[in-house]
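[Q] Does anyone have a clean structure-token version of this?
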Amino acid sequence: MTEYTAHSAHGSGSVARAYRIGTWVHVSSKERGRVASTALETAEARAFARTLLALADEIDGGEAKEEPKRAPKVGDRVRVTLDDEDIRTGEYVGKVGVLQVDHGAGSGNRYRVKFGDGSGLHGDRVNGTWNVRDVEVVDPEPATPDTRPKVGDRLRVTQKDAWSCPVNAGDIITVVDTRYDSTYGADIVKFDVDGDSFRWCIPLTAVEPLEDTPEPLAPWEREILASPGRSPRARFVEEAKALLADVDEDEAPALIKLAQFLADGDA
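[A] Here you go.
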């Protein structure tokens, strides 16, 4: 027999019970040995139960209602809840990835999920893909800036003949196009080779950023910038005068005057 029991909040030992006998719902209460019982028809019992819920909601505002789960869509970050029921069952349950393909309702393994950076083969649990029966949407990861190369960036090749490209390790290429987050595999950049009309593709795993470093200062430039006293521009003017010492005397005044003008009169 199904029975529900509630105890008095005042700790007096009073007990309320609800249970079924035949086609009736019985509600009884017991206090100090005395029992009172009422038999209710099903409709009356439901109305009584709804009244109890309404009274409780008036006190604490009601139970928090769980929002309905959103149906996953391609591009969502998802967690696998049911994987392939025939092959490697259970290996992917709980893993989080990005929903890559939705084959539609009625498909056995409806969803294809990409894990990691997607550079691996189908079946690679770290960076590959897998078809699964069901997934649930999870909160997206905090947004991070996209640091992948963009058109115009210069990159250094780290692998000789990567993807059969005519390159050696250490070669410098310039990005002319990109293909990221594709369903076909790894993230790639495209580049041109002088004298070749073919546009070559190379994966990001075979290149690295090329950090442009400024030309080092000449010793006299470092000395001028490090010396105390006058402004850097004025010190450059002094250096210019020394460099122009052997210039034709008819030209030197005009050049020095120009240098003084560039120094805003600090010379």
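[Q] Thanks! Anything notable?
[A] The chain is about 20% helix and 30% strand.
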